């Protein structure tokens, strides 16, 4: 019989329960409910708070076992009320931008081309931590290198290229003004966003933006996000004071970028407050300058003012473009 190792997270002990069992390289964990680890009482009546507590305990015991939440193969979730599913799922799901693009693109393709259709794609997923480090240092040459090799290797095999992150468009010119640039077009996220807003909200001219500081402030770069929207005739509003800008940036990099489970109630409230400040200054819509921010700031937080998720809009437009190409080549 293979060896089995039972273990618990630090500080936990029970005469009848092991929190995890390692067998043949797999970690099996016992069930968890949303209780305070010190008192044993439910952390809250709110399902989202209970879910965060469960994930925190699971993360702790998995770490003790040399594993982590990102390696989970199967997880059974039991709810006493199915109406709680959406709130639970918003905390549980990992808002990974690569998966978001893949899912939205293929959803569009299936709607337009049939249930068995799927998009012909090559995907390259960059290391977010590496990108954040280069961006924080302002080292855009190194940032660009993250994308140069995969773009060069793919450019002869594809009909178009999309960079699936707002911040990464900062280096678009470096990638496409290279001595040996790709011979296919770049589908810029700002182009897709301005087309979407113009078509669906033709009277909208003043738009708020919340996101990392580099995305909000770098309006001097003519090929980056804000400047392209300004050239299209939009007035872009960002938080008004340096303190507000720094607080939004902190929330983005220290919490939102790590996933919804890392976002505290106070930080979520801060984003809602910042959005409302932009609306008070005349913003007719709010651009969420990060894919993950859509899991923090929700439509009900801002009433009738539309929230724009550039990544989702970008992916939808890519799906439409792919379908048009597939229809053109069909017999």
From TrEMBL:
Gene3D superfamilies: 3.40.50.1860, RutC-like. GO terms for molecular function: amino-acid racemase activity; deaminase activity. GO terms for cellular component: cytosol. Signal peptide: none annotated. It holds the Pfam family Ribonuc_L-PSP. Belongs to the RutC family. PANTHER family: 2-IMINOBUTANOATE/2-IMINOPROPANOATE DEAMINASE RIDA (PTHR11803), PROTEIN HMF1-RELATED (PTHR11803:SF58). This is Uncharacterized protein.
